[in-house]
Amino acid sequence: MKFLLALFGCTGGPSATRAAQLPSTFTPTVVVSAEAPLFLGFEGGPFAPIEQRRLAAWRVDGGVPAAVGPGGPGWYQAATQAGGEVWAVAATLLPSGSGATYRLVVGTAAGWVDRGPIPASSIGQVATDGQGTGWVVGVGQLFRTRDGGANWE
Q1: Do the Cβ atoms of 141 and 120 come closer than 8 Å?
Q2: Which parts of 1-153 are beta strand (E)?
Q3: Which of these, 2, 65, 61, 58, lies nearest to 35 by C-alpha position?
Q4: What is the DSSP letter of 73?
Q5: Is 39 exposed, middle or buried (0-12, 13-18, 19+ CB in 10 A)?
Q6: What Rg value do the Cα atoms of the chain yield, rounded?
Q7: Helix, strand, or coil here: 6?
Q8: Rounded to whole angstroms, how far apart are CA atoms 27 and 43?
Q9: For residues 71 and 9, what is the distance between their CA atoms, to the nearest angstrom?
Q10: How far from the centroid of its chain's Cα atoms is residue 145's Cα?
Q11: How many CB atoms lie within 10 A of CB 83?
C-alpha cells in the first residue's frame, strides 16, 4: 500500500502529501476534485480478494481526511464531478465471481444517494452535466440518463 500512496505523492501539487494521510487499508481507484480531494476506492488493501472489498470514500479538506459516502460491498469504478454533484459508479462482484453489477451513487452537500442500477456489463468512465443528464461508457457500450440515473437508454 505504501507503494501505491507513493505513486499519488509523485504527482506533485498541494494534494501530494494529503494522500499519505489516508488509512493504509484504503485502496484509491478514482480521484475527484483537486481543490478538496475526494478519493474513492475500497477498504481491504490492494491485494484483498475482490469478494472482500468494501466501498470507501475519503475527502481531504484542510489536510484532514474524513470518511464520506455510502459503504457496502464492492469498489468505486469511475467518478466525475459537475456543479455540486459527484457521480460515482459503484461496482459489486457478480455471485459467479466473474464480472460485476454497477449502480450510480450521487453525492451532494446534503449527502449521498444510491440512484440504482446501471444496465452495463462494463464501465470505464462516467460523465454528467450536473443537471441530471449523464453518460457511462464501457467496452462497446454507451448509456445515457436524462433523469439523474432513474432510467438509462
Answers
A1: yes
A2: 26-32, 38-43, 54-61, 64-68, 75-82, 85-93, 100-108, 111-118, 125-128, 134-138, 141-145
A3: 61
A4: B
A5: buried
A6: 15
A7: helix
A8: 6
A9: 26
A10: 18
A11: 10
Q: Say if CB 40 and CB 69 are below 8 A apart.
A: yes
Q: Residue holding cell 443537471? A: 131
Q: How far apart are CA 43 and CA 22, in angstroms?
A: 11
* Structure-derived torsion over alpha carbons of residues 116, 122, 124, 126, reported in degrees to the nearest 10: -30
> pLDDT digit of tens for each residue in the chain (153 aa)?
333 333 344 344 444 544 558 888 999 999 987 667 889 999 988 888 999 999 999 988 877 888 998 889 999 999 999 988 999 999 999 999 889 999 999 998 888 999 999 999 999 999 999 999 999 999 999 999 999 999 999
Cell for 83? 456543479
Q: How far apart are CA 33 and CA 46, in angstroms?
A: 22
Given this model, what pLDDT does residue 5 score? 37
What is the grid cell recorded at 74? Answer: 464492492
